[in-house]
Every structure is written in C-alpha cells, then in structure tokens.
C-alpha cells in the first residue's frame, strides 16, 4: 500500500507542476495577480506531495519492503538504519526522486521569498521552474519509477547497498550537489523571465544574485564533500581524479563563479547584461548536461548510475527541449536588452571581464577533454582512448594562477577606473609575498618548487590585499563586502593546499610483516599485527600500526559477501598541516601484506578553502542591502505602473 | 563616446584572441596526453606502439598472479579468453577489487619483449560494472 | 557592430549547443550499441564443459543439441531473476520450450535452496561458478536469456529480465516459425 501511495503522491506532484506552469505563465501574460497567487499556492502543494512521496520511499527502506524492486536492489536487512535511509538516494531512481523534490523546494522558496517581484517576472520565473519539474517528473514516472513492485516472488533478502556508498560522506554529498545544481535553475528561470519581459535592470540582477550565491555555495559544499569522500573511501589518497563525472560537476561550478561576478557588474554598473543572461542559461544547462552524462550510461565511472538506453534518450530529449528552447529565446530576444558601457584601464569591470574570460576558457578546455574520447571513438569507428589527468593539470593550473593574480587586485579596484597609484602600492605587497613564498616552503618542507612558490606568493598577496581593504572598510562594513573578502581568502587557502599537497606529498608502498616497520619522511610506521573484525554486513582484515611508537592507526580491508566486493578502508590521522594515510592492500604470502603509507601536507586546506568559500557565498546573501533595496524596487515599480 | 566604444572593442577582441589561443593550445596539448586503448591481441600483433604510454585490458588469467620474493613487484597475465595473453609487471598495491578471473585495465608502457610495464592497475567496481573498454572484448576477435 | 553581426553573435550559443547535442547523441548511440551486441546472433553456441548443478556430472554443448532451448542465465544473488522466475515457470508448465539454466557465479547450496523455495522450471542446470561460460556468451550480468535452435545456433538474445510482453512479441513468434 505504501509504495502505491508514494507513486500517487509523485503523480500529484506532476499534476501540480503542470498547474504551476499554466497559472504562472497565464498570470504573467495577462499580469493577473490572482493567477500568480494560484501558482504560488500550487508550489506548496507540489512540495508537499513530493516530500510525502520521498518520505514514503524512506519508509519502504526502513521496513525492508523488498517487494519494491528499488529497495530490493539497494538495501538489506543487515544494513544499519541510517544507511537504509541514505540508500533511498543511493541509486538512480531514488536519487532522481530526490532531484524532483529539490526542484520543488527551490520553486517553493522562490514563490515565497519573492513577493516583491513584479508580477509578470514572478509568473514567468515560477512557470519556468514548473516546466523543469514537469519534465523531471515525467522522466521519473515514465522510466525511473522508484516505487515499482517486484511481484510475484518477493525476495526475503535484498541485494545490499553498494559498499562504497555505505559511508557518512556519501549520505550528504548527493543532496548537496542536487541543491546546488537545481539552485542554478532559479538563475536560469530568472534569465528566461528577463528575456520574456524584456526588463533587465539592476533590480533584476539584485534579485538573482542571492539565489546564485546560495546555489553556488551548496554546489561547492557538494563537490568538496565528494572530493573528501573519494580521498578517504577509495583508498588511494587522491582527492581529484578528473573523472568525467567530476568534471560534469566542476564545469557548472566554474561558470557559476563567472555568473556571480558578472551579475555584480550588471547590478552595480548595468554592464554585460546580455552576457550575464547567457551565463545564467549556460550554467544550468551544464548541470543538465552533467545529469545526462551521469545517468545515460554514456560515461562509466565510479559515480555513474546503471545503464538503461531508454532513460538516456528521454534525458537527451529534456536537454534539447529545455536548453535549446532557452537558447533560441535568447537568440530572438537578447538584442532588445542594452548595456550601458563606460569603463577604462584597470577598472573593476575589466577585472570581471578577465575573470569571466579565464573561467570560460577553463570550462571549454575541460569540456574538450571530457568529450574528446567520445568524439574520437565515433570518428575512428570504435577506437578507444582516454584523456589523462596531466592534460587537465597542464591547462587548468596555469589558468588558475593567472586568475589568482587578477583576483588579488579585486579589493583595490574601483568601478569605471582604478587609479594606477593603488595598483603600484599593492605590487609592493606582491614583492613581499614572493620573498616569503621563496623561504617558507624551504623552512616547512625542506624543498622548493616553482608551482608552490607561485601559489603561495599569490595566496599571501590575496590575503594581504584583502585584509588591508577590509581594515579600510571596517567602519562601513556590509555582509556583501565581507562575503567577497572571505570567499577570496578561501580561494587563497584552497590553492595553497592544492599546490603544497601536489608537490610535497610523500608516498611509499611496501610489503610488510607484523613486527616490521618503515620510515617515511621522519615518521616511523610499525606494523604490530593484522587481526580480523566483523560487522553485520561485512568481515574485515584489520591491521594495527604504531606511529613513532605512540599513536595507533587501524587500516582495514573489508569484504562484503553479498556484493562480492572488497573495499579498502584507509586509516587517516588528520591534521591541519599534514595527514598520515595508511591503506592496507592484499595479503601476499606467509603473513606479509601489501601496505601503502602516505604523508600529505596541507591536504585539508583544499576542503577548508572550499567550505570557507561556500560559507562566504551564503553570508553575502544575508546582506541587508538586498532587503532594503528590494523594498525600494517595489515602490519604484508600483510608481511606474 | 566613439573612443570608449573602440576601446571596448579592443579589449573584447584581445580577450577573444587570448581565449582562442589558449583553447588552441589545449587542443594541441590534448594530443600529447591521450592514452589509446588496446586489447590483448592488439598488444601481441604489433598494433600497440612500444615505449609509449597506453592503456590495455583483459581478464586476469587464473593462477597467473605471482609476487616476487621481496618487495611488491607483481606479475600477472591478461587474456581476451580467445587465446591472446600478455603478461604485465606492476610494482605497487593492487586495487582492492583486483581478482583472478575478473576484468582489469592497466596503464603503462609496453616493452620490446611484449611485457607490459604498468604504473597503474584499475579493476572493476562491482558485480554489475564492466569497464567500458572491455565491453566488447568478447566480440573483438570473432571471425 | 551592425544589427546583422549582432544577431549572428547571439546565435552562437545555440549553434554551439546543437554541436554539443550532436556529440552527445553519437556518444549515446555508441553506448547503446555496446549494450546490445548482435554479433552473437546466428553464431553457434560456444562449446563448454561444466558440471550440472544437482548431479555434478559433466555436461557439454552436445547435451543441448537436438531441440530448441531457452537458455537462462541466473543466480541466487540476482534480484531481477526473481521477477522473471514466475514467467519461466509458466513457460515450463505450458511446455512451450525446454529451458536450460546457467547458474552464474553462484554458490551451489544457495542455488539449490533457491530452486527449492521458488520452484524449478529448468530441464537442466549448468553450474558456471567461475563465470567461464558467461564470459564466452558476453554476459554483462544476470539475468540474460538466449534462444538456441536444435542445431545449436543462437537466434535471439535478451539482456535483463523477461516479461510477458517480450515473450509474446519477440520469442514466441520465433518459436512458432520453427514449428
């Protein structure tokens, strides 16, 4: 009964989504308040229905209802309750139900938080969000129904959740990512609405900014969690693999940064209006392309879902309809929108333009590397190749160094034109930072590296220019300005982490017997013994290591019998300045084991920097200015009417 | 106003050219960093180049995994189950899902004696997953 | 910039997107080609020598020849196999065709108790614990089903569970054409 109720709730969600589209767009076309009001009310219904559907699916998991195919394929009576709950979004069908629920949540948020919007804009935004969820829900119900029953012959036991997904990081990583992706749908809808109404003023940019910030913040957290999860769960000690699916989440992240900055110029200076709209459309389009890549089976990776050709075709249809439609609208309508242009020399506008150009080039090169193997296979009739991580590093890292250079100038720069004097003064700080960056790695890691010196010099320069600006602004500090400063400092933290970890990590793989020890960069790792442990759904070999005679670490090698899967559970001693990382490999012979130990300096800084950036993006949304100006904008639009 | 406009065009043109050059460089760089994939019979019949980084794959032959007496040097054989088999040497930890009778992908260099010196070994992720390159392993050698 | 140049510029994103869709479509098409390898169709069923599940005696290709066989790859750990099991039993009861099971990468005791619990529609069961026959057949995962004629040629292949619809629309017509 419960699965049928869930299925019905999802259908109700679809019905209300159709209602939102009809009433929203009708209300916008006729600037009729009661229709838009109706649309707002329907967003509540849509959210309620899909939330119930999702909760009912969780209930099916908690009750071990293996008559539901999806539950039988992804759960097991032995699974702890929290992994039963997270199993709900552990595979394609359930995670897509979550995806539609997230869409409904954002729609609800837009409906409730944007009462100040002009009526037609509000109607179009809700209508566009509604169209998206209609497409998603049709896809869910037609080809990925998570409530599908498996009758007759209900199994008495399920197939278990994929062991690498049985992990706290994996519990929150996908929801964060989805919230981020679909958050950009709000910006997309605002873009479409602006094209429909032909109104794109600084008020529009102001409304859009906080939504984009929120979405980007969540996406940042999602990506950072994914990277962190890969670091400790896959047992390699790597934190970014340039895997196609990772790239699919990274491209909208980069273009999201471009959008945030270009929106600032549009709000404050009325510049780049056409470009901003295009970015708003493209950022969400890239999220959809990513969803297609992950869920259609075009690419295979750790993250990809199971393959079903029908699904891929359906998703491709959604992609063509939504993105193609929006870009066609852009082609037809964008020429009606005019930008004001006045900028000189090293103005803030120019810096933003440079930022956007660098990010767009980064996105294009990543896309090239991701899609090249697909195209190549087609052109050569089946020859296969892959693009290695070195390609991405080679292209992407220099771009980020250049970006960091211009980023340091951000707080000094002024709209229209920046006095040369300020730039000259800050270059003294750069010189100081460079000297420190030459000495510091030598003191801390007894080694020098060109990339590390570049990264640390720029990071220090960014931090000093920003704190100096912050100090100067201390009397009239707004949350928006604070957000900008903190986000840029987060970026500096992250690039230091990336550079130092990549250059100064130590690693050694060895064959060890209990009693033996090995020395890696001043740390002694002694293998005390290897024992056995057991949990309800796996058995494990558990090694006991003693580090420098006092600290203990226990890497494991787990065997999940139901899926016939072995996973490496690395032991990590985390630290702000370095991680110790041990993974236990396979048993070799007469009691010896393959072991890999690593020391990774500053690896935590990568995720720390990401979280700082995400937090800053969200803090910036709370700026009172948005509220105050929103009120003024309403008064103005009322006066015009 | 005209000067402003010209200036703007100049800046845009500069950014556009810079971007295009970078993308063009990326395309050139791409050629250096691609790893072609080869099946066991291609390794043996000389299709696969020697002394260049490539990827190869096959099923790990039963009881072919041999550890050397010291250290982590491992030798094993990959086969297409149609009679073509080549041997792989690898120093390091094998991935946790590496098993005899299962598919594996190796990345590294082929030497003149047709021994594959791997610097990375990848194994499949779970029961339902077949590395995409190995999907048509069974068909590749059909007469 | 003239109006015309401006419009061409605005069309660029749309054109770029269409190019992307083109790449995605061909990629998708390639992926689909991999999933349904037709190369086994009209080829002889590969020879094998494996124990039978219950009796332990060795069976080979010769044991299958002489009549049309529906060869079903299954395992006790396979959830989707349960969903098609009822259909297989109906087919066996009606006597439409003789069904041969290939028990794929399984434990013997698990497989036997599974058949005991759910019923046994199979005329014969081949025990392929290492998946050797599965590899020769290009099996991606259980369940998969092959239709093999009396001379031992594969005439039909299905990846994934059978349904009534597939049975009626795709397999029964082939069987009828042989009668």
Description:
The complex is a heterotrimer of chains A (641), B (143) and C (179). Chain A has 641 residues and is of the alpha+beta class. Chain A folds into 3 domains: 166 residues, no CATH class; 206 residues, no CATH class; 97 residues, no CATH class. In chain A, the strands form 2 sheets. In chain A, strands 3, 4, 5, 6, 7 and 8 form a 6-stranded antiparallel beta sheet that branches. In chain A, strand 4 and strand 5 form a beta hairpin. The radius of gyration of chain A is 26 Å and the shape is globular. The termini of chain A are far apart. The mean pLDDT of chain A is 89. By secondary structure, chain B is of the alpha+beta class. Chain B is elongated. The longest helix of chain B has 32 residues. Chain B is built from 3 helices and 7 strands. Chain B folds into 2 domains: 34 residues; 104 residues, Nucleic acid-binding proteins (OB fold (Dihydrolipoamide Acetyltransferase, E2P), Beta Barrel), CATH 2.40.50. Chain C is α/β, with parallel strands linked by helices and 179 residues long. Chain C has 2 domains: 35 residues; 139 residues, Glutaredoxin. In chain C, 47% of the residues lie in helices and 20% in strands. A 5-stranded mixed beta sheet of chain C has the order 5-4-3-6-7. A two-stranded antiparallel ribbon of chain C has the order 1-2. Classes of the chains: A alpha+beta (641), B alpha+beta (143), C alpha/beta (179).
Q: Provide the gyration radius of chain A in Å.
A: 26 Å
Whole-number tally of structural domains of chain C: 2
Count the E strands of chain C.
7
Portion of residues in beta strands of chain A equals 5-15%
Q: What percent of residues of chain C adopt helix (DSSP H or I)?
A: 40-55%
Tell me the strand order in the biggest sheet of chain C.
5-4-3-6-7
Which two chains touch over the largest interface?
A-B, 53 and 44 residues
Main structural class of chain C: alpha/beta
User: What is the annotated CATH architecture of the largest domain in chain C?
Assistant: 3-Layer(aba) Sandwich
CATH fold annotation of the largest domain in chain C: Glutaredoxin
Number of domains of chain A: 3
What is the residue-mean pLDDT of chain A, rounded to a whole number? 89
Q: Detail the poorly predicted runs of chain C.
A: 33-37
Fraction of residues in β-strands of chain C: 15-25%
End-to-end gap of chain C: 75 Å
Average pLDDT rating of chain C: 83
Q: Calculate Rg of chain C over CA atoms.
A: 23 Å
